[in-house]
Structures are given as structure tokens and as C-alpha cells.
Design a protein that fits this description.
Distance between the termini of chain A: 19 Å
Oligomer: homodimer
CATH superfamily of chain A: XisI-like
Largest interface: A-B, 26 and 26 residues
Strand order of the largest sheet of chain A: 1-2-3-4-5-6
Order of helices and strands of chain A: HEEEEEHEH
CATH class of chain A: Alpha Beta
Radius of gyration of chain A: 15 Å
């Protein structure tokens, strides 16, 4: 299992890979932003911009670190982020699927909080 | 007019004031997060969390700095962010209301891009 102090870099690497792999850089005016608040540990992937007369705004992924645990707060992809983090050496017990209800989390195999 | 290098702090102060004033710290499990990526200049206020069986996720405010201009990308409040920035000394010509269409921006009195 990797050390806690590597968590921020592992999350940033994962989001950067998803951002690059999905070639979601700039599509017809819609910009894909990697947002890394490394001080308060918020890590986001957000799509926004104008496509003709239509404005798009959507947070695709939002991951936090709170009390030494990784919280998956939003995932608008088909990628299993928790599994991807475990593959990178993060302990299942240090991952909370925040977007699942506290009740559901007990069945996930990950941390409850 | 204030210097460009003060823009990041002015935006952070504004968002921190809104966050504090609206007492949107923690309401029944819903957390209000200030997210400041000071390296890539993305500044957000996001509400998220569980209220009973209901999960809330919403980006309230999103402001960027791009090419020395402030872009208001999202504003889910009744506060006029552009005016608030002007009151703090920011030049109107350095503010883009990104959430208005490029066409509409020419009528706003702010920058087009």
C-alpha cells in the first residue's frame, strides 16, 4: 500500500490520464479543465464552454482528500474510479464513495466514512 | 485600477466573503467547499453532500483567470459578480462574462473575450 503523502499525486495523475485519454482537451469551444486545489485537496475535471448557442457546464469528476481518506464525490464517467485508485496502490479502507449514500457504503467493500 | 497580480487574491476574498456571509458552511450534511487552484487560476464555490436520502451536488460559482482576464463561468447566485469585482478595483475591460454567449457579451459593457 502506498503512503498517504502520495495520494495527492496519484489522484492528479489519474485525472490527467483520463483528461488526456478521452481527448477532451478542447472540443468546438467546450474546454475541459483540470482543477487541482492541492492545499485543501480538491481535485476536479470540469467541462465548460459554448457550442454555438448552447452553453455546457458539467463537473465530470470530483475527488477530495479528507481526514486521510479519498472521497469520490462525483463521477460522470463509466470509469470505476475507486478500482483505478486501488490498482495504483491505495488501500480500499482509505477510499469513501461519497456519491453513494452512507447506508449503501457498507455494502461497497470500501470505507463508510 | 488594481494590478493584475492582485486578481487572484481579490477573487479568493470575494468567494470567501460570499461563503462566510451566506453561512453556507455545513447545513445538515451539505458541505460548502471553496476550491482554489491558484496555479491554473480556477476559483470555485461548490455545495455537496447528503441530506437524508438526497444527494446534492452543485457548482455555485466558477471564476477563471485566462490571458490576464477574469472569466465568470458560472454564477448560481443573485450576486452580480462582475459588479462586485469592479467595486474591488478591477477594470471592466478585464472581465468576461463567460456564461453569457459571445454574441450577448457585446451589450454587457464588459470584455467580449
Amino acid at each position: 500500500m502506498v503512503n498517504l503523502n502520495l495520494y495527492p499525486q496519484i489522484i492528479q495523475d489519474l485525472l490527467t490520464e483520463i483528461h488526456t485519454r478521452d481527448a477532451c482537451g478542447n472540443k468546438n469551444g467546450v474546454e475541459s479543465q483540470l482543477i487541482f486545489d492541492t492545499q485543501n485537496h480538491h481535485y476536479l475535471l470540469v467541462d465548460l464552454g459554448w457550442e454555438g448557442k448552447h452553453f455546457t457546464y458539467g463537473t465530470i469528476i470530483h475527488i477530495d482528500i479528507k481526514d486521510n481518506k479519498i472521497w469520490i464525490q462525483r463521477n460522470n464517467t463509466e470509469i470505476n474510479l475507486a478500482e483505478s485508485l486501488v490498482e495504483r496502490g491505495i488501500d480500499k479502507n482509505n477510499i469513501v464513495i461519497g456519491l453513494h449514500s452512507p447506508f449503501m457504503r457498507q455494502f461497497s467493500g470500501y470505507a463508510i466514512n
